[in-house]
TrEMBL record:
It catalyses: [protein]-peptidylproline (omega=180) = [protein]-peptidylproline (omega=0). Its EC number is 5.2.1.8. Pfam families: Pro_isomerase. This is peptidylprolyl isomerase. The lineage of its organism: Eukaryota, Metazoa, Ecdysozoa, Arthropoda, Chelicerata.
Length: 407
């Protein structure tokens, strides 16, 4: 039965939703960016036609970035200078799909029409929802040919990646891509290819709707209230109590930066917790001590636990091979939750990830088994490291790990 406090939050959340709905009907026309150009991608999945994605572009806001994208849409992999024949090499459901690497096809290549890289023009456009097209980069002023399409609002990418377009047709195709099975590097097992690309001749420029800033802020407050309600009810339902505590001492480029302490919920997922605890007691190549965090995606998660290969392809379990998903009772309802990384259902080993955001789109797909109770500042240090292909440029090592006696 809800308490008075819960009733208040539920009421406030519902009121928020009503106001948000009303606000959505009142968007101001003069804030909408003007689409001056458009391109198309004809997509195949596993060699079979999957449909067309049409992207509106905003030359009046980011002319240099749009010119780069338009010219590359007219080129091909065959001539080494364009998107036709290239693939989407990275897919993260609920976050982004990424392509544009027409030279290497793995996120390490591509180039711009201006040479290798060019500067960030401006950050006037925001990652305001699903379907916004933005430049992928490896830091400030490192734009080339790679781009990504957002699958949700990603405000943590604002002022870091240049937004230059919006999908105006074909989000159903984008969603098909997000549903594909992927390997440990988020590359789809089925090839997602741009079989044809080119320019769409517009009869006239047109405006594209974008949520207003005050609308987005208000929506965020509503989501916080709703998540608060869900979190409290989830905690009541699961009655999750910590059965074990594990620590990792972390070094970045050989220098200790602190400890991360985890509370683990063995009453909810005993098999998963036992696996994690055992590896926390052991040294590489049979455990976590001495292993690395090999994958970091800011605003999403940090991943480790591959103590055999350290690139996301290895690791093991204490059960001699992959083990099944126990359950999905615990959820990715806040930053700091720790979950099993996998390559699909029932493929758990030793790899894990720590969420650095609310990742509820992973619920029902990855087994949550604990949370960070101390050292979230260390997690944030790792999250903010420079990366190439999601691998930290600095070495992030678990120099010590073990089980804490909290009795």
């Amino acid at each position: 039965m809800f308490t008075f406090q819960m009733n208040f939050y539920v009421f406030a959340s519902l009121l928020c939703l009503l106001v948000v709905f009303a606000e959505a009907q009142q968007q101001h026309r003069d804030h909408r960016p003007l689409a001056t150009d458009a391109v198309f991608f004809d997509i195949s999945i596993g060699g079979k036609p999957a449909g067309r994605i049409a992207i509106a572009l905003f030359r009046g806001i980011v002319p240099k970035t749009v010119e780069n994208f338009v010219k590359l849409s007219q080129g091909s992999v065959k001539d080494g200078n364009g998107f036709k024949g290239s693939i989407f090499h990275r897919v993260i459901p609920g976050f982004v799909i990424q392509g544009g690497d027409f030279t290497a096809g793995d996120g390490t290549g591509g180039h711009s029409i201006y040479g290798i890289q060019f500067d960030d023009e401006n950050f006037k456009l925001k990652h305001a929802g699903a379907g916004w097209v933005s430049m992928a980069n490896s830091g400030a002023d490192t734009n080339g040919s790679q781009f990504f399409i957002t699958l949700d609002a990603t405000p943590h990418l604002d002022n870091k990646h240049v937004v230059f377009g919006k999908v105006v047709k074909g989000m159903d195709v984008v969603k098909k891509i997000t549903q594909l099975q992927r390997d440990e590097n988020d590359k789809p097992f089925q090839e997602v290819k741009i079989v044809n690309s080119g320019v769409i001749q517009l009869k006239r420029a047109f405006r594209v709707n974008v949520p207003q800033i005050h609308f987005m802020i208000f929506s965020s407050i509503c989501l916080i209230l709703i998540n608060f309600c869900v979190a409290e009810e989830t905690e009541k339902f699961t009655n999750a109590k910590a059965t074990d505590h594990v620590y990792f001492e972390i070094a970045i480029d050989g220098k200790s930066v602190g400890k991360i302490t985890f509370a683990l919920f063995g009453d909810v997922v005993p098999k998963t917790v036992k696996n994690f605890v055992e590896f926390a007691k052991r040294h590489k190549p049979l455990g976590y001590e001495g292993s690395k965090f090999h994958r970091v995606i800011k605003g999403f998660m940090i991943q480790g636990g591959d103590f055999t290969s350290e690139d996301g392809t290895g690791g093991d379990s204490i059960y001699d091979g992959p083990f099944e998903d126990e359950n999905f009772i615990l959820t990715h309802w806040k930053p700091g939750m720790i979950s099993m990384a996998n390559a699909g259902p029932n493929t758990n080993g030793s790899q894990f990830f720590i969420s650095t955001a609310i990742n509820d789109f992973l619920d029902g797909k990855h087994v949550v088994f604990g949370e960070v109770v101390d050292g979230m500042d260390v997690v944030r240090k790792i999250e903010n490291l420079k990366t190439v292909n999601d691998k930290p440029v600095s070495e992030v090592e678990i120099i010590s790990s073990g089980v804490l006696n909290t009795e």
